[in-house]
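Hi, here's the filled form for the chain we discussed.

Project: internal
Contact: R.S.
Residues: 830
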Amino acid sequence: MPGYENERARLRQYLGIEWRPRGLERMDDEQQARFLRHSSDLNCDFSNPDKCRWRNLRKPGFDTLDFHLFRKEDYTEFPMLQVRPGPSRVRVGDQLLLVGDKKRQEQTAILISHPIKCQNTTGKLTFTFWVYNGARLEVIMLEERDEGKSLHILPEKPHIDCGTVHINTECTAILPPLDHPFHIGLRAYDMRNTEGSFVLLDNLFYEAEFCRVSIDFGPDFHSERLISSSTKGEPVDKPSSLSCTEFDENCRWRNMGYGEHGIWRRAIGILPPLILFNETGTDIQPNLPAAFLYIEEQTDMPQHTNIISSKDLHDASTLELSDTTKAFRMLASDPIKCPGSTNIILQFRIWSTKGIKLNLCLFERHSMQQIEGKCQQVPVGTSPAIVQQQFQTPPQNTEFMFVFQVQNVNKDFDNLVLLDDIEMVTDHSSAYCGQLGADIAAHKGWLSDGGMFTAQMLNTLLNRPIHSAKDLTCDFSKRALNCQWANLEKLNDGMSQWEIGILSSAKNTKTSEDILIPVGDVALARLDSHNKSAILLSERILCTLPSLTNTNGNSGTLSFRSWGSENGIKLNVCIIRADSLEVLDCQNVGGNDGERKLTEEGDEILVEVPRLDEPIRLALRAETIGENGGGLIAIDDLKFQAIYFCLRGSSGFTHKGERIVSQQNRAFNDGEKPQDFHEIPDENVCRLLKCDFERDGSMCLYTSSRVAASVSMFRAYNNSAFTVLFTRSKVAILESPIFHLNTPARLHFDYFVSKGPAKLHFCQDSVMRDLSSCFIISAEGETFGWKHDFIEVLPTDRKLYLIARLDGKGRANVQIDNLELTDIMDHSIC
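And the returned structure, exactly as it came back:
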């Protein structure tokens, strides 16, 4: 409202409202106008006008003025008799619209809603407004004609009901149902008083039932053609080829059929959370890209459809392809063949609108017809949890395809389906599906003397603590040089060493990700006679903490792949005490004396590790069984999945338990005391020295005293230790509490020098009382922002001093924050 400074000043004086320049700029953007889905979309109190679905009508010939945004700035009450019928008391901070002028010619302004496609029921518009000096307000309805090129005001104008007394009240208007697109409008008119007249408007709320509204996915979402490498429909060579998460050209899924109502596309971008929740009932976002099917409303569907009963689903009885499903495109995989009779599982995630019925079926490759009894309804109600559909493989090695087909939709609304994270889950039998199933026989005998070479492991136990679960990951590459697993240094009678097994060139090819033939190096235990064993030991784990995702209180999971030859061997996973090497627990994970067998086909082993608050080690023990026992055991891809390991010192708790080796072998290290381990800094010292200065101006245990010829001291200010240095007070000292450290550590901190040059020094008050060697932390003057640094702290240190010294004349501000003690590898302690 430029040019109305005097009028705005009077509005501020008598009403306490102030103009908000450009406050309706985004709201008035006509490009943002889309069909409304819910009547609540029209609710607006103008506290955030960018989200309001109203705008000023700016078409020639309709009005002469625009509404403007104003804000209530003080507690001035509106004059009750002159400005009404709205309430005279408006809260400070409320925003409302105003239009007015002081011209003699009549001025009008129209506020129009976003388009409504149609309305099934009578609508109720509730709002608050005020008029002054003869100005008036009416509710109108407008419809689009000539394919949206022109607007026309409908002759019927809803009556505005403000009650019996038109003071301190809100008003309502009733709008009839309409079966074609229209707008709701609020028209201010009769503004023709030369002394000035205006209309104020606020708190718009609308209640009605809209119909047949398309889904607005927002500007950050779009879709493109689903183009994949499966256009020729060639058979896949392995089950993992059917896995698809990106739905790019590498995916083996494609459109199938000639349906007229919707085609599967590739969705990209981000779905608005509110739209996702309203349409699918979940606010968990899909990780796009994903397969996307959009079916418009009022899709004409044949009347004769075959409905799947619960008995049909349970008994997997025949389900013919109905005319309904032929109306929609299907999402089909490339064909695959599985030898013999086995269970196959396809898992995926699905998001869909209410009313969608989706089937997953098996189709025969050549006839393109559904295989009898191989169709199941997808439980869309479990979205977005992983869905698993299990089938029995078709007989006679039939090549088949997985096909998603729409069975039914909601005709009153637009429908959508999103499919993501498709994967064919395999087990021992289904892993042989695909063209490479016949090649498995060629790999028989890889776990033998002729199938691989052996070499000695290059790693050794360094008795170093493990700080992260990832440290236990090992694929035995480079002859296990970087692994935290190794053999015992001294072997007792009857013990063998784990070696590195290197597959021969003829075998050094992975057949399939689903077939557990290893690639490259593996850990190999060769047990050639009875009473033999081999132990692979991890480095020391200080303690393990419970996983947040494990409800049984376990710390995490140790996983690896294992293979075996012959039947006279077994493999155990053991948990032992780090210092005494006493057994806490052992679990048999493979062998002919247990449920799980060790074979050349391999298996993936998962072992849960319980919560322990003392130092431990993990051990893999291979041993022979019986008098005629012997054979080879191979392992690979060792991983430990857990949140973290805690950083504690050794526990004094001891326990006499069973040794991990047999009685004939006596002990791991023949009774010798293990080497000393690198210690972790004392947690108590960490608590003494840690400070972030955020607790009610506290300096924690740090102090600051005046020194000679200086009055500057550090104090807690603005969540940091702060001091001001100037010409007559050039030095300030921050002093730590007394501490006794058990091992070298690092003290990390942040610092900020501003408004002048200053130098920072860290001094270590050792038992020698030698203060002549202080470390210069910052000598460049101003830092122009926060900097991070650390100093080494030794066991001989008893105190630390941080000295801030003004460099030259003038003044400088110095801030210290986030003091924290870590070990020498920068791992947190407390």
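Let me know if anything looks off before we file it.
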